[in-house]
Amino acid sequence: MHNSPNVYDAEPIPEQARIEIDRMLNSGDLFRYTAPENAPVTLLEQEFAALMGSRYALAVSSCSAALFLSLKALDLPRDARVLIPSFTFAAVPSSVVHADCVPVLCEVGENYRIDIKDFEARLDDNISAVIISHMRGHTSDMDAIMSLCNTRDIPVIEDAAHSLGTTWSGKKIGTIGRIGCFSFQSYKMVNAGEGGILITDDADLVAQAVIMSGAYEHNWAKHMTGRDSALEASFARWQNQLPLYNLRMGNLSAAIIRPQLGELARRVRDGRSNHDYVATRLNSSAWLQVPEKLSREERAPDSIQFNLVGVSDEETRAFAAAASERGVKVQVFGLSADNARAFWNWKFLPGGTPDLPATRAMLKRACDTRLPARLTRQELDIIADALIAAAEDVMQPARAYGT
């Protein structure tokens, strides 16, 4: 079957972006600090902070850059231990290593969320900071996490690359910890090809991040949007005291992002509806299981993850191949070659690969399929039909012959 929808193309960029890009191409004004005020990047930061209900935002080259700057702004000592979930993208532990810190991994359960008991046990092992990855939009128990971390005065950074639009108990993901970091890479809810942004209410943290992002000399003044004595004092304190890593976002990227912010609510609504429809279909199969969301979580998904139930590695690979033959790409996190989300492929980890049996077992049966918000009900049925049929084709004959 070859009539499956294209799940890789993003939505068209709004016309307003084209108009602004044409203006910039005519002027050649692409650098965020050329204009004294109201550069596209500056406006994006103001608009994104307002959208999230945060005091400050800093647009940078990627979510990885945002995570790195967040860690540096926390002023952690060299080799500080940073606790992260073992189910995340390789860029997260990479940002920790890049910040001269040591990533410490905790177990993740079959529902793709942090194992709170294991998290707490590792939290007491000389941890200086925590990064919570809301991986593929799956939010862990943020009430428990924040209580444990606040009691120990351990700062929390939210890696919300996949979670723009998700809420926890009505609070926007990315606003619960000290800092929230987001991605504008092509497969995210808002697409600039590349790009990222961090948000915080902490003037001292954002001042450090702004300077380290590449606000040389007094360009930090262009981040001021009115009288803010705390922010002004922090900029004065850190001027010329910090290295410049030059991780700025350019005006072209900001121009592409800004008109998409108005589309976010629709994309979240449609993405959630699409996900839940396909999840119901997949859960009708004896071989496929989509974990339930936590009760306080409202997701903003652009893909769907599901577990294969009671199958072998061989059957899992055969299922992915059968789905591919029907035109639906399935990534099995723990069985796809060189997958950047399988922790044992992170050969750069200090001390080698940790022993995390629960996460390893989950990743070897956890499947991932893109499910962008723009898909129609007919296209969703094509995808669901292909996945269910692939499971039946592989698993039913195997069970009939007793293998």
How does this structure look, described?
By secondary structure, this protein is an alpha/beta fold. It folds into two domains: 15-262, Aspartate Aminotransferase, domain 2, CATH 3.40.640.10; 264-400, Aspartate Aminotransferase, domain 1, CATH 3.90.1150. It has 13 helices and 14 strands. The protein has helices spanning 15-27, 40-52, 63-73, 91-98, 116-123, 142-151, 203-214, 229-238, 251-257, 264-282, 313-325, 357-363, 377-400, and strands spanning 56-60, 81-85, 102-106, 127-133, 156-159, 167-168, 171-172, 179-183, 196-200, 288-289, 297-298, 303-308, 331-332, 366-370. It has a seven-stranded mixed beta sheet, with helices on both faces. Helix 6 links the parallel strand 4 and strand 5 (156-159). Helix 2 (40-52) packs across helix 9 and helix 3 crosses helix 7. The longest helix is centred in the C-terminal third of the chain and has 24 residues, at 377-400. It is globular. The protein starts with 14 loop residues before the first helix and ends with a helix.
What's the overall average pLDDT, rounded? Answer: 95
For this structure, the quaternary state is single chain
Distance between the termini: 27 Å
> What is the 3D form?
globular
Task: Give the DSSP E fraction (strand runs of 2 or more residues).
Answer: 5-15%
Order of helices and strands: HHEHEHEHEHEEEEEHHHHEEEHEHEH
Helix-strand category: alpha/beta
Under CATH, the topology of the largest domain can be stated as Aspartate Aminotransferase, domain 2
- Sheet with the most strands? 7 strands, mixed
State the helicity in percent bands.
Answer: 25-40%
CATH homologous superfamily name of the largest domain? Type I PLP-dependent aspartate aminotransferase-like (Major domain)
Low-confidence stretches: none
**What radius of gyration results from the CA coordinates?**
22 Å
How many strands appear in the DSSP assignment?
14
Discrete helix count: 13
Number of domains: 2
Order of strands side by side in the largest beta sheet? 1-9-8-5-4-2-3
